[in-house]
Amino acid sequence: MKARVHITLKNGVLDPQGKAIKHALSALGFDGVNDVRQGKYIELDLAETDPDKTQSTVEDMCKKLLSNTVIENYSIEIE
Amino acid sequence: MKTAVIVFPASNCDRDMVVALEKITGKKPHIIWHQDEDIPEVDLIALPGGFSFGDYLRCGAMAARSPVTKRVIEHADRGGNVIGVCNGFQVLTETGLLPGALMRNESLKFICKDVKLRVDNNDTPFTNAYAQGQVINIPMAHHDGNYFADDDTLQALEDEGRIAFRYVDDSGDATKSANPNGSRNNIAGIISRRKNILGMMPHPERLIEEAQGGTDGLGFFESMINALN
Fold it and tell me: Within an 8 Å CB–CB cutoff, is residue B70 touching chain A?
């Protein structure tokens, strides 16, 4: 199965890179960008064929390595 | 005092740490490669600065999951002393041995300069050779030293006196302009609840003899001699 993991900064965690992107967009003339938050996208190709097992394995991966839950949230899509 | 320095791929301050520990203790530290499964019985384990595993995923994330790091965690759980400087601090937060996280500097720039630190708790094995509130000059060199912890964690650190070092101005005040990287509450270094683990971003091992331009970092190592010998 394939898993797609999005990792984003939690609300309340400052995102200086997001802020820099916002400034750069505004310098390019893109007005009306209220906020930018940047994150990570990770694709996994897994041998497991059961969606539920895949979901729980990937959640475990997110908690143990892929995200730092002190500052980040993760979301998982299974296909 | 017996010591060990852990070396990860792309650690680059390990030699400085070894030289500092040898100078202070008179004994050469054990140098432990990250794939080694065992660490000899020591009084102190040091996690050095650098860019372990190329800072892939997050700074310190890979090193925190290295085989040897399990041994470091066991040593710390037994009450053994651990220091993490710069990347070592990032590794300690990634393992959960210290709370919070080190994020990209607010300016997004790699900052390499001397900074003033105030010793905010000198009642620890790593700071007892300094006076309470003493202002010292220590070099910093990092891209990701912006300390973050949520409000509750931050309050607990403050209430429990667990902030060892804070970035300050020349008169010792923790002002916004004295904060080089956006760290919450100007935090430069913290200790664990049991006071056996210290993490800090600036590099005391880079300022231990006059040839390096000063000796303000010496007190850090002398403290450990006082506490652990």
Answer: no
